[in-house]
Amino acid sequence: MKITTKLWIGLGALIVLSPLGLFLPEHFKAGAAWGEWGIDEIKKLAGYVPKGLEKLAQLWNAPLPDYTFKGWEEKGLSHLSFAYIISAIAGMAVTVMVVLLIGKLLARKGK
Amino acid sequence: MHIPDGYLGPATCGFFYALMLPIWTAAAKIVKKTLKAKQVPLLAIGAAFSFVIMMFNVPIPGGSTGHAVGGVLVAILLGPWAACIAITVALVVQALLFGDGGITAIGANCFNMAFVLPLTGYYLYKVLSYNAPLDSNRRVWAAGVAGYIGINVAAFLAGVEFGLQPLLHHTADGQALYSPYGLHIAVPAMAGEHLLIFGWIEAIVTALVIKFLQRQAPELLKEGRG
């Protein structure tokens, strides 16, 4: 088997395992990454919401916010895991396509 | 380490976009000279790997979470400039599609994770694995150390970027306009959690994949020229 085939299989395994990135923080009661809090959290932590932060925080409406479907934020872990896997597949597919395109434009041909 | 929108003021956001433009241009030029067409699939795999490994949030019990980036690994295999492009694509997709990392902070996030992290890790690996046989344990150790240091330098920089905000932007009565914590809190928090926990994840991931490739495809370790 070619090494690239093995690596693609490895990536597939990581996709399936990706909900661990949800389960482990949930199990150990860990919150957001440092400096990546939502507006409510920052109000709790700092005692106020910085004005500029409040304005800019809503700047972008991502189609799959936080690797889930809009409106699914409060659903259970099984739903969130499903959305997480779909997000991993979608994100990796777009990433791979963009890199292949850039590679096609940049790389030396025939070598 | 994905700085969201609203945490960095306009000056910092603009500064890092301006800083990254020539870096991205240089990366494109160098990769154009050095990357072979047959390496492109590996670059795509590297970018996808970085994308998905960042979804593996590792908890500090009762505290925050963090993750590996995989950038040092890509740099070891394909060079730091190709890694810069691969990680940049992963970070831009994360920001645009998933709101992970801010649109305004893409410059800063790419500087930390797509430029400094792979570049530091790559040259450290080169020094530590100098003249080491392809199948030697020294290469595995070198990869682990390079991963650990690379992500920690990036985390330290993110801490500095967060920590400068209250100094740069505040109201007359001292309330911060953007990220509210100064250097004395932001730097120890970002540096500390990566030194203690998340740095080791990057180290282990990098070392294990290099070990795997030593057995399966040692030719990939032959050169990772920029």
Provide an overview of this structure.
The complex is a heterodimer of chains A (111) and B (226). Chain A is an all-alpha fold and 111 residues long. Chain A has helices spanning 3-17, 20-27, 39-46, 51-57, 77-106. In chain B, strands 1-2 form a two-stranded antiparallel ribbon. In chain B, β1 (58-59) and β2 form a beta hairpin. In chain B, α4 packs antiparallel against α5 (106-128) and α5 (106-128) runs antiparallel to α6 (137-168). The radius of gyration of chain B is 18 Å and the shape is globular. At the A-B interface, α1, α2, α4 and α5 of A face α1, α2, β1, β2 and α4 of B.
Main attributes?
heterodimer, A: 111 residues, mainly alpha, extended, B: 226 residues, Arp2/3 complex 21 kDa subunit ARPC3, 7 helices
Write the layout of secondary structure elements.
The complex is a heterodimer of chains A (111) and B (226).
Chain A: H1 3-17, H2 20-27, H3 39-46, H4 51-57, H5 77-106
Chain B: H1 10-34, H2 40-53, E1 58-59, E2 65-66, H3 71-78, H4 80-98, H5 106-128, H6 137-168, H7 183-216
Helix pairs in contact in B: 1-4, 1-5, 2-3, 2-4, 3-4, 3-5, 3-6, 4-5, 5-6, 6-7
Query: What would you call the shape of chain B?
Result: globular
Q: Please give the radius of gyration of chain A in angstroms.
A: 19 Å
Multimeric status of the protein: heterodimer
**How do the strands of the widest beta sheet of chain B line up side by side?**
1-2
Sheet with most strands of chain B: 2 strands, antiparallel
> What is the CATH topology classification name of chain B?
Arp2/3 complex 21 kDa subunit ARPC3
Structural class based on helices, strands and sheet pairing of chain A: mainly alpha
Number of helices of chain A: 5
Largest sheet geometry of chain A = none
How many strands of chain B? 2
Mean pLDDT of chain A: 94
Mean pLDDT of chain B, nearest integer? 96
C-alpha Rg of chain B, in Å? 18 Å
Q: What CATH architecture of chain B would you give?
A: Orthogonal Bundle
Low-pLDDT residue intervals, each spanning 5 or more residues of chain A: none
Strand content of chain B: under 5%
Distance between the termini of chain B: 25 Å
